[in-house]
């Protein structure tokens, strides 16, 4: 799977910091210092500040009234709330797009699923997350509603970061088995069944997160 080169330094800093937050390299509560980041990434202060502002909008960085910045801390409550929001948006997109899928779309879905599984096998969580998200994106974009996809994109990074799953996490299994079942149903022509199975992924996923994560809270 190929990735586009960010068009600006700000976009490059946003992607780098987002990846570090999603993978847990920058854990929740980490103090963010402009000058230190600029020096580490080899850029000026301006793209760092612009990137921090963008990641604040995405909910990945908290900016306190005194202007100090920290990687957003995570609770079970906001993790489950994000999954609920993601479910509403993504399932709406799936419902609107599923009847527009062609054989070409289904071929792309199968390709993304393979990339998803291969990336997990290689321990590449970022690539796995991107391929898994693309699986849903293909169907949502088939609806023709790009505004919805923009909203989904805003939630995806926050949801991925909150879970910060390793490649070995059992939480991936809901998506692997769900995507496989959806592909089979689509190839059988059962669009309603595919939608129902997609919705079930979120039910299973939420249950797993509630049961297995944040158990000490």
Q: What is the compact description of this entry?
A:
Helix content is 68%, strand content 4%.
Radius of gyration: 18 Å
Instruction: Give the CATH H-level superfamily of the largest domain.
Output: GntR ligand-binding domain-like
Roughly what fraction of the amino acids lie in strands?
under 5%
**Which second-level CATH architecture of the largest domain applies?**
Up-down Bundle
As a percent range, the share of helical residues equals 55-70%
Q: Please, how many domains?
A: 2
CATH topology (fold) name of the largest domain: Four Helix Bundle (Hemerythrin (Met), subunit A)
Q: How are the strands ordered across the major sheet?
A: 1-3-2
General form: elongated
State the end-to-end distance: 38 Å
The biggest sheet, with number of strands, parallel, antiparallel or mixed sense and barrel status, is: 3 strands, antiparallel
CATH top level assignment of the largest domain: Mainly Alpha
Q: Could you give the count of β-strands?
A: 3
User: Which structural class is indicated by helix and strand composition?
Assistant: mainly alpha
Tally of individual helices: 9
**What series of H and E elements makes up the topology?**
HEHHEEHHHHHH
Rounded mean pLDDT is 87
Low-confidence stretches: none
């Amino acid at each position: 799977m190929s990735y586009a080169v960010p068009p600006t330094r700000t976009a490059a800093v946003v992607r780098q910091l987002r990846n570090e937050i999603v993978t847990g390299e920058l854990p929740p509560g980490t103090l963010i210092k402009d000058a230190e980041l600029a020096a580490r990434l080899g850029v000026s202060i301006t793209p760092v500040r612009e990137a921090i502002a963008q990641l604040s909008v995405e909910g990945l960085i908290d900016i306190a009234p005194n202007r100090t910045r920290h990687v957003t801390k995570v609770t079970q409550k906001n993790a489950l709330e994000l999954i609920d929001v993601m479910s509403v948006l993504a399932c709406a997109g799936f419902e609107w797009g599923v009847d527009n899928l062609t054989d070409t779309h289904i071929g792309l879905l199968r390709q993304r699923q393979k990339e998803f599984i291969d990336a997990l096998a290689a321990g590449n969580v970022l690539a796995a997350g991107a391929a898994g998200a693309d699986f849903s994106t293909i169907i949502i974009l088939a609806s023709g509603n790009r505004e919805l996809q923009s909203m989904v994109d805003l939630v995806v990074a926050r949801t991925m970061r909150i879970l910060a799953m390793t490649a070995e996490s059992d939480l991936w299994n809901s998506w692997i088995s769900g995507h496989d079942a959806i592909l089979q149903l689509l190839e059988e022509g059962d669009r309603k069944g595919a939608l129902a199975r997609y919705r079930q992924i979120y039910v299973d996923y939420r249950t797993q997160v509630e049961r297995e994560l944040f158990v000490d809270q």
